[in-house]
Design a protein that fits this description.
The protein has 49 helices and 18 strands. The protein has about 1200 residues and is of the alpha/beta class. It starts with 9 loop residues before the first strand and ends in a 9-residue tail after the last helix. This is PNPLA domain-containing protein.
Length: about 1200
């Protein structure tokens, strides 16, 4: 039979109060136990006390709890007693004023009889368990003291010694009387507290009719270190619906119609009016969340709410409604899951989490982060330290942030001890995060992964600050914090919550410990633990103990050395004596090498002991495994995946060496991959033999030189092994070159999930470039492109610049590769906002290609198109459009109309047309390009997404925001999914979406999103990057629309000054910011200054973009508004009429900008006393806005007010 066990999850039962409806709870429990019985194949009904670890109840639920838990009855036996009590005792009532009250003397008499029959003692006590008693489990019932009737402070009567607030060891019948003694139903009872003192008690059903909170709290107090597997809470029927009375008068009908919408929406009011039973159930349901367990709430939904608690004659009705409930599909499924969890008792979450002391779920637990590795299966010893850590991190006794520092020599088991602790106590923590603290680069890389997973933060430091705000019981392990030069403090969240473990070889880091109990020196294993670990690792029977002890003494009982020795003995089937002899010989060779050249290596004492074990294992490896280990030495030591090598092998045919040096290196790559492929010819397609590769890995894992992380499906090396592996490299240049080729070949940008693959390669690419630049410049250019794709623009520029310089030397300045590299370098410059430099470089590329291969050669045309894009970035839109149209006329004939380069140029041409105000023409081209890109490249290809972005911009400019808004949202979400939340292109899409919201007059939403985009771009690209400045200008525009004019003026002035300096005074972005500044000054009443600025903007826009550009016309309209406010209404109206005529011609009569100008002109005409003209114009604006935007849109409401003001000018309610 399945019984309670510390290896299983806790099983808890909570029983509500319910009077006669308590029978329903028993019938539901009977069905659950019947299904468990079926699983057990038991011939007789099972006793709940043998399955539940704790049962708690209140009122009639308390009576049931005592019968099931303390008295050890089956459910059927309990039902018989319950029905007998209902038909005899509970129907025997007396009149008490207008109320009926229970004859408590009869209840006491009957309960004593029951105790006599079951326990042989009518005065059997709650905590006194005799040898002849039936099986039982921990049980409690709830009541309230007459001196404190607060439902928040129920009194408990336990059958066990409670860890907190112990109760008197009263008789069972007294506990039953106390929990049933409702003030309106039964008299209170006095119970001895401490002779001669007595205390009065009543039932706690009023205000505490669902004891689930007490059940979970008691489980945590009794079993703080156990997990919960099943929580079953059974109710006595849902509360009845709350409804408004039907209206009986006209006034009542009006009142009902007025109040019913608010009433329907008033969820808080309904919540307060619901019974405390449902309220408690709802709270716990929200805490656990999942419908699949471990919490199951079962209660009849309909039928019982009309049965009063003391209508015992309606027991048959209770039975009928309960059986109907159990036949419902939803209830049946819930009962099935509850029975399954009760039978299996899985360990699902900590009892502390279940009772709410730590969070069951948190945002952190939902992040897509790599898992913390599991401890070694042969972990041994460290019981004293694990116990210290358990007490130190105990969530009940410790509420503040705790930092525990484990320091000791390398390979002593510090990391494994940390892993073992968090694995044993994982249910305590809302999330467990692992940070590689070996140096600043690895630490920041792991924090950056967390930043990307949060989808809100953009830098490592921002992620640290984010974590400090997450008030969860998280755990962060800072692993291998060994470098004394690395300052760890900036990477530790500054907060008063959370948990931290630091593993280090540096004892000075114990200053981070949060108390004197928060640090420990991890010594070498004790002799007994070392011996046990050795037997586990070697899989040897405990023989040759004296030889083993001698070997362990030479190994200094060093954990990593013992594991290495044991793995070698097991793999090679050595005797301990044989291995001891090999170890002594290896150490002798090491001594000889050191004596020959004392300065060649500097070993720590523990390295002196452990390195010979590595050497012994190394000599036994097959050649392919030693090569693989040497390659790993140039990778980052963590997260080495098989897919890297698989992709590299499958891309071998792309290799094309161009120099003798490259040919030699490529030959080495061919030799390496021939071991894992049947192909040896670069001109044919290569396949990858996964089994052969894993066989080589198995050789390394069998000697414990690398470890496999099953949770993350990748491999890693201990930092000592990683360091030692460098010593075994026979040809450093050759092996580093091989590692560079493997990583370079694994780079793909056409497969699904390519950006995720490139992000996972980053730590390895950074590591492999530390000491040597690839001789294959094509390979180096690909690495630089990865840095560009993943938003690491500075690293990309550094690599691409080096490629260009080396390309000039190797191939010459006019060689196609050199020119291609210069173009890549220009892309990095453009990404950094250095557009003038990008234009200069791209012009040189285009001119050289024009001279060498001709102006109509495909690559020449592509370079010309890229040059036009950089010219566009400088704000020279007309010039860019002319060049793009010139390319557009030639590319379709030369490379085809569906070639990606043709489509890319068409997309850029459309963007230039939009910038020039030719939005309809632009939208038509963009839609064609987008549809072609979807067909040829796929929906999620970067070029397709760029085309979607441009189309959305054109649609918005045409006033078709209903189409543009969902497209912009989809683009943002898609880029977020593919590129990550913090990629610059994702953030740009985010800002563009916010601009769409601004156009739709959703100013508050737009401002919030623009600010987030600003913060992200500031962290990634810098405060002065053109993209960042453009978003700041957008924020200022939102503030202006929100009438926060002072903030808008200050922000617009700041951004304009920077744009004027960086982009130039005539750049479109600078002029738009100046326009925002002028509009802010106008709103602040600084009319003269505003007019001066707006005239300046208008002149520049007319000069650079033309008099008829939509933006020029908008600025002219702003200037007209300024003139009107200054009192020159006639002049303003004339200017507004000119603007309106142009906008009607260019944008169309229904464009939002056209209608806005028409509205302003109407106001001017009204001010001039030309009411009929004004009314006619404002009427048109009102009708068109109503048709296009709907009657409830803010713009429509404003135009409605304007129109009615033209009719009733004396009514200030409608004033402009």
């Amino acid at each position: 039979m399945s019984s309670s066990s510390s290896e299983k999850g806790l099983r808890l039962l909570s029983l509500d109060s319910g009077g006669v409806r308590g029978l329903s709870m028993l019938l539901i429990l009977k069905e659950i136990m019947h299904r468990v019985q079926d699983r057990e194949r038991a011939p007789h009904p099972l006793k709940p006390c043998q399955y539940f670890d704790l049962i708690g109840g209140v009122g009639t639920g308390g009576l049931i709890a005592l019968l099931l838990g303390r008295c050890g009855l089956t459910v059927d036996e309990c039902i018989k007693i319950y029905v007998d009590l209902g038909t005899t005792v509970f129907q025997d009532v007396v009149k008490w004023g207008t109320e009926e009250r229970l004859k408590v003397t009869n209840l006491e008499k009957e309960w004593k009889k029951i105790m006599k029959d079951i326990l042989k003692d009518e005065n059997a006590r709650m905590m006194d368990h005799g040898d002849g008693d039936p099986p039982h489990c921990d049980t409690f019932v709830c009541a309230m003291s007459l001196h404190n009737l607060s439902p928040a402070s129920p009194r408990m009567f336990y059958t066990y010694a409670a860890p907190k607030f112990p109760s008197t060891n009263c008789t069972i019948w007294e506990a039953a009387r106390a929990t049933i003694a409702e003030p309106t139903f039964a008299e209170s009872i006095e119970i001895d507290v401490a002779a001669p003192l007595k205390e009065g008690y009543v039932g706690s059903s009023t205000g505490n009719s669902n004891p689930i909170h007490q059940v979970l709290e008691q489980s945590a107090l009794l079993h703080p270190f156990r997990d919960v597997g099943c929580v079953i809470s059974i109710g006595a029927g849902k509360a009845g619906p709350i409804s408004l009375p039907p209206p009986r008068t006209i006034l009542g009908t009006i009142f009902t119609r007025m109040i019913r919408p608010a009433y329907t929406l008033g969820t808080n009011l309904l919540h307060e009016m619901a019974t405390d039973t449902d309220r408690a159930a709802e709270e716990i349901s929200k805490r656990f969340g999942s419908a699949a367990g471990p919490y199951f709430r079962l209660t009849v939904e309909h039928g019982l709410q009309n049965i009063k608690l003391n209508e015992w004659e309606k027991l048959p009705d209770v039975t009928t409604h309960t059986q109907q409930y159990l036949r419902l599909a939803e209830a049946d499924h819930k009962v099935h899951l509850a029975a399954q969890h009760l039978f299996r008792a899985p360990r699902l979450l900590s009892s502390l989490a279940a009772c709410g002391l730590i969070q069951v779920k948190s945002r952190l637990s939902q992040l897509n982060l790599k898992s913390c590795p599991l401890p070694s299966k042969i972990f041994t010893g460290r019981h004293d330290i694990l116990q210290r850590m358990t007490s130190f991190f105990d969530p009940i006794s410790n509420k503040m942030r705790r930092v525990f520092v484990i320091h000791g020599v390398g390979g002593s088991g510090k990391t494994q001890t940390a892993y073992k602790f968090v694995d044993e106590r994982k249910s305590w923590f809302s999330a467990i995060l692992l940070i590689d603290a070996a140096n600043q680069e690895t630490c920041e890389a792991d924090w950056m992964r967390i930043a990307q997973a949060t989808q809100t933060e953009t830098t490592p430091q921002a992620a640290v600050e984010w974590m400090s705000r997450e008030e969860d019981n998280w755990m962060i392990i800072f692993n291998n914090a060994d470098d004394p030069k690395f300052n760890l403090r900036p990477y530790i969240p500054d907060c008063i919550h959370g948990n931290i473990i630091i593993t280090t070889r540096n004892p000075e880091l114990k200053i981070y410990a949060s108390s004197k109990d928060g640090e420990c020196h991890l010594p070498m294993l004790s002799t007994s633990d070392a011996l046990e670990l050795f037997w586990k690792a070697s899989h040897r029977p405990m023989s040759d103990q004296n030889v083993a002890l001698e070997l362990l003494e030479r190994l200094d009982n060093h954990s990593l050395a013992i594991v290495q020795a044991g793995a070698c003995i097991y793999t090679l089937n050595f005797s301990t004596q044989d291995y001891l002899q090999l170890y002594m010989e290896s150490q002798q060779r090491q001594n000889e090498l050191l004596s020959e050249n004392p300065s060649s290596q500097q070993y720590d004492d523990y390295e002196y002991a452990v390195y010979p074990t590595f050497d012994i294992s190394y000599t036994q490896l097959p050649a392919v495994a030693t090569t693989l280990l040497q390659i790993f030495a140039f990778f980052h030591h963590n997260h080495i995946s098989v897919s890297i090598f698989q992709r590299a092998c499958q891309n071998m045919s792309s290799l094309d060496p161009s120099t003798d040096e490259e040919a030699i290196e490529v030959a080495a790559v061919v030799v390496f991959f021939c071991r894992f492929s049947s192909t040896n010819n670069l001109e044919t397609e290569w396949s990858f033999d996964l089994l052969a590769f894993k066989k080589a890995l198995r050789a390394l894992t069998s000697y414990s030189l690398i470890t496999y992380d099953q949770a993350n499906e990748d491999y890693s090396l201990h930092t000592l092994v990683h360091k030692w592996a460098h010593l075994k490299i026979d040809d450093i240049h050759a092996k580093q070159s091989l590692a560079q080729y493997i990583l370079g070949l694994s780079i793909e940008d056409t497969s699904n999930g390519w950006i995720t693959e490139q992000l996972s390669l980053l730590p390895h690419l950074q590591h492999v470039l530390l000491d040597s630049f690839p001789s294959d410049l094509g390979l180096a250019r690909k690495i630089g492109q990865v840095f560009l794709n993943t938003g690491m623009y500075h690293s990309s520029l550094e690599v691409q610049t080096e490629v260009v310089e080396r390309g000039k030397i190797q191939y010459g300045e006019d060689h196609p590769f050199t020119l291609l590299s210069m173009s890549s370098c220009a892309s990095s410059l453009a990404a950094l906002g250095r557009h003038a430099e990008a234009v200069e470089l791209r012009r040189r590329v285009w001119e050289n290609q024009q001279e060498v291969v001709g102006e109509d050669y495909p690559s020449t045309l592509t370079s010309l198109s890229l040059l036009a894009s950089s010219i566009f970035d400088l704000g020279r839109h007309a010039e860019a459009e002319k060049i793009q149209r010139r390319v557009f006329e030639k590319q379709p004939q030369i490379i085809g109309e569906n070639h990606p380069h043709t489509l890319n140029n068409m997309s850029n041409l459309a963007l230039s047309l939009s910038a020039l105000g030719r939005h309809a023409e632009a939208a038509e081209i963009q839609r064609r390009v987008w549809e072609k890109d979807q067909e040829i490249l796929g929906e999620n290809h970067p070029e397709t997404l760029t085309g979607m972005s441009h189309l959305a911009f054109s649609l918005s400019a045409l006033g078709r925001d209903a189409e543009a808004e969902p497209m912009s949202r989809r683009l943002w979400e898609t880029r977020k999914e593919i590129l990550g939340e913090n990629h610059p292109e994702t953030i740009t899409s985010m800002a563009n979406f916010a601009s769409c919201l601004w156009t739709l007059k959703r100013y508050e939403e737009a401002e919030e999103i623009q600010r987030k985009a600003w913060e992200k771009l500031k962290d990634i690209l810098g405060e002065d990057h053109p993209h960042t400045l453009r978003v700041i200008s957008n924020v200022a525009a939102c503030l202006l629309s929100l009438e926060r004019h002072t903030e808008a003026e200050e922000m617009s002035r700041t951004v304009w000054e920077k744009q004027k300096e960086i982009l130039g005074e005539a750049h479109r972005d600078s002029l738009l910011s100046l326009n925002n500044l002028g509009s802010s000054l106008l709103a602040l009443g600084k009319h003269a200054e505003a007019e001066e600025m707006l005239r300046k903007v208008l002149e520049k826009m007319q000069e650079t973009m033309g008099e008829n550009h939509p933006v020029t016309l908008k600025i002219m309209g702003n200037l007209a508004t300024c003139i009107s406010i200054s009192g020159r209404t006639e002049e303003a109206a004339e200017m507004q009429r000119r603007v309106l005529e142009k906008q009607q011609e260019i944008l169309g009569e229904n464009h939002p900008e056209t209608l806005s100008t028409m509205s302003n002109l109407g106001a001017s005409l009204l001010a001039l006393g030309r009411r009929n003209e004004a009314q006619a114009m404002l009427s048109v604006v009102w009708r068109r806005n109503r048709e296009m935007l709907g009657p409830d849109h803010p713009v429509t409401r404003r135009s409605t007010a304007n129109f009615f003001w033209s009719i009733f000018p004396e009514d200030e309610t409608f004033a402009f």
